[in-house]
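[Meeting: bench + compute handoff]

Bench side (C.D.) handed over the final construct sequence. Compute side (W.E.) agreed to return the predicted structure before the next meeting so the bench team could plan truncations. Sequence as handed over:
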Amino acid sequence: MTFSVRSVHTLRTVRALAAALLAGALLAGCSTFSEEGRDQYERSQGEPPAAEGAEGAASDEEESESANPELPFDVRPLLKPDKDYLGLAADGAPAKMTAVKDFAEKAGKKPNLIEFYSAWGDQYETRLVKNSWDYGAVSFIAWEPFETPLKDIASGKEDEYIREYARSVKKLNLPVAISWAHEMNGFWYPWGTKKVTAEEFVAAYKHIHDLFAEEGATQVIWVWSPNVINPMPKVKLEPYWPGDEYVDWVGVIGYYAATGPSTYPELYGPTMTQIRTFTKKPFIIAETAAQAGERKPADIKDLFKGTAKAEDVIGFVWFNFDKETDWRISSGPLSQKTFREQAQSDSFGFDVTKP
């Protein structure tokens, strides 16, 4: 890893608090992939079995595998499901599932989307993706280019790495949501507004996507994840938009903090309104939590109610960490009770293997 897990999460929580304080004070041309590309899921392209009795004929098992090759996983039913995702980012998960199971016990419901963080340069972490899937959840990877200039990515200097990553995704053949260079409209990451232009971001994002398309890695749900605009309202989002053909989910990131917005419309409304001027792709709250304190139970209830009410929001990912402040649902008995009550809604959670 370029950064340690601890340092990445420390930066993230410092950023979340700072953003809240500021807010208080202030392929090649395919949707993700084209319908033509997606339709390959519905076409079997097996080889005919070898002639019976021929020298070197394949075994019955080999013939069966050849005649019925595994088709690429079809992510289309996962893009806009009838029910909302109940997502989770938790310490050590999904390398170890202890924190996930603990969350599920406290929440009274299993999460079906598990987020983890991966530094640019890391290999595709197939074991983690498989751990999530075996549990009953889709992996959601925040892919972070901490030390690689986006110009280098766009110009092709990282192509070998990108192609290898894409081939690994294709080989594992499980669905995965990838959010690359999230919060690009903020100033706190090296790929943010202080060092990278919108044009550079878009060029790199599209280049990565196009290489995945060339490799046939159609198992990806592509996520474009800006931070809520409250801390930096003058940074317009449309220049950072790669285009509908490159994005499946709009992953808005925003936390309920003690000094920040206290309602769903205040926290997410301005950002979603601006985004709706240039795309109708479904929203997912790609990262959120509520700061420990007297207001937390009300914030939790507001998050559930707001997400369930919004037809174009397909769920959220809860950042269940105790880092600098306690974002966990178990930070207090009333917070946990409220989360558990709200999670029982039939609107949240579904079997991702049968969406």
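W.E. noted at the follow-up: Residues 4 and 120 are 13 Å apart (CA to CA). C.D. will use this when planning the next construct.
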